[in-house]
Specification:
Elements lengths: L1 H9 L6 H23 L5 H7 L4 H4 L1 H24 L2 H19 L4 H29 L5 H30 L2 H21 L14 H12 L2 H31 L4 H25 L5 H24 L4 H27 L6 H24 L7 H25 L9
Helix pairs in contact: 2-7, 2-8, 2-9, 5-6, 5-7, 5-15, 6-7, 6-9, 7-15, 8-12, 8-14, 11-14, 11-15, 11-16, 12-14, 13-14, 13-16
């Protein structure tokens, strides 16, 4: 099966487009499980806080625990998926996700919910690692960025649909039913993986799962100059995005007095900007190198985040805030697939571990920035603006340093 699927996808002349599209649909839905698990319950922060007699800021700790869980989970799944293949560990991860969703639903207190969200993330991590690794397994290296952009299109539907779905479920049945919805969604994913997703690699039994050897292998990947430049640049960009996600309920429902339904619609609109960016990126990739697009985009992101900082400092109001954030998210839609593709390019046999390390780095930065923004109990958007500007400026510096050091235009397939 592995030989057939690789031949099918990598043969550019005789490619089975239908099968390729099915694979991308399943992978996109898998990778969407992670953000859907975040965005679907965001509108319920106020309700959860009231039920547990606490503040919205403390409910933000359930996001922090989720980011920590998805970071650790991805690091664990990377070598496991290189050793045992992609499919079996993926199904085990989905099983963990299902049980954790049920546990979240029946949480008796905030501490239980925080822990359950951690294990929910460990389960979701399997899909995030498998999706990127399988793309690297079966697609020609020069098509990886485009394939990941397709995944972004599918995945991008999650933050658009999830808050609206979450608002409707919370208004009608209460926040607990969000997690029942996620459990049912997970069962559908288990069916889809079992039925439609083939194994994409020959398992490598030589992969050593001893913690010391795993750490050594990860360190070898991390110290590859191309990997760490793009992986960390992409991670800082994702850190900016998750700072926004964590602060969005307080920013829009607290500062600007939006209702749960209005928040869901606005959050979905901004997420639509992320999707739009990822798809326009595919068009740009036909004419420009991935590195050129990413560098130029990074400069504009720094400028926009600087503008948002000025808007926050001088409290210029609702409209300038949402317009600027929309364009920031639009440009982040370019950065995520491009930095991921450039990070994975040097690796083939280690694609599972490289994919896991990229995902883990992004979620570690996401956990850090979400925790950092939750520390500020203020109605001002200045803390968020400072974090966005800092993350995007550091992302730019890493890209600039790599480009200045190599003095070449990087194209896929080149060393």
């Amino acid at each position: 099966m592995f030989a057939e699927i690789c031949k099918m996808v990598q043969n550019s002349e005789g490619r089975n487009k239908k099968q390729e599209n099915i694979i991308l649909l399943v992978l996109g839905t898998l990778i969407a499980l992670g953000p859907f698990s975040i965005d679907a319950y965001l509108p319920g922060f106020d309700s959860i806080a009231k039920d547990f007699d606490t503040s919205i800021s403390k409910i933000g700790l359930t996001l922090t625990s989720y980011f920590i869980g998805i970071s650790i989970g991805q690091l664990a799944y990377g070598p496991i998926m290189d050793k045992f293949g992609r499919k079996k560990p993926l199904l085990i991860g989905l099983g963990i996700y299902f049980l954790s969703a049920i546990s979240c639903m029946y949480s008796p207190n905030l501490e239980w919910l925080i822990v359950s969200r951690f294990f929910l993330a460990v389960g979701a991590a399997a899909g995030m690692v498998a999706a990127k690794a399988i793309v690297r397994d079966v697609f020609p290296v020069h098509e990886v960025a485009g394939a990941i952009s397709v995944l972004m299109l599918i995945m991008g539907g999650a933050p658009i649909i999830a808050p609206t779905v979450g608002s409707l479920i919370i208004d009608s049945f209460g926040w607990e039913m969000i997690f029942l919805f996620l459990a049912v969604f997970c069962l559908l994913m288990i069916f889809s993986v079992t039925r439609f997703l083939p194994e994409s690699i020959v398992p490598d039994k030589k992969v050593d799962l001893k913690p010391k050897q795993v750490a050594i292998k990860y360190f070898g990947i991390l110290t590859h100059s191309k990997f760490w430049s793009f992986a960390f640049s992409g991670s800082f960009a994702i850190g900016a995005m998750f700072a926004y996600i964590s602060d969005a309920p307080k920013l829009f429902m607290g500062n600007f007095d939006l209702s749960q339904k209005e928040f869901g619609l606005l959050f979905g609109l901004n997420a639509g900007g992320l999707i739009l960016g990822s798809q326009i990126n595919r068009l740009f990739l036909r004419k420009f190198t991935t590195l050129k697009i990413t560098l130029f985009n990074s400069v504009i992101l720094v400028i926009l985040s600087g503008i948002f900082l000025v808007i926050a400092i001088f409290d210029l109001g609702f409209l300038p805030t949402i317009v600027t954030l929309f364009f920031v998210l639009f440009l982040l839609g370019f950065q995520n697939p491009n930095t991921t593709a450039l990070s994975l390019e040097p690796f083939e046999k280690k694609a599972g571990r490289a994919s896991a390390l990229i995902g883990s780095l992004k979620m570690i930065l996401g956990a850090f920035t979400s925790f950092l923004v939750s520390l500020f109990h203020t109605s001002s958007s200045v803390p968020l603006a400072v974090i966005l500007f800092s993350c995007l400026f550091l992302s730019f510096l890493l890209l600039f340093r790599f480009n200045n050091k190599t003095k070449v235009n990087i194209r896929f397939g080149e060393a």
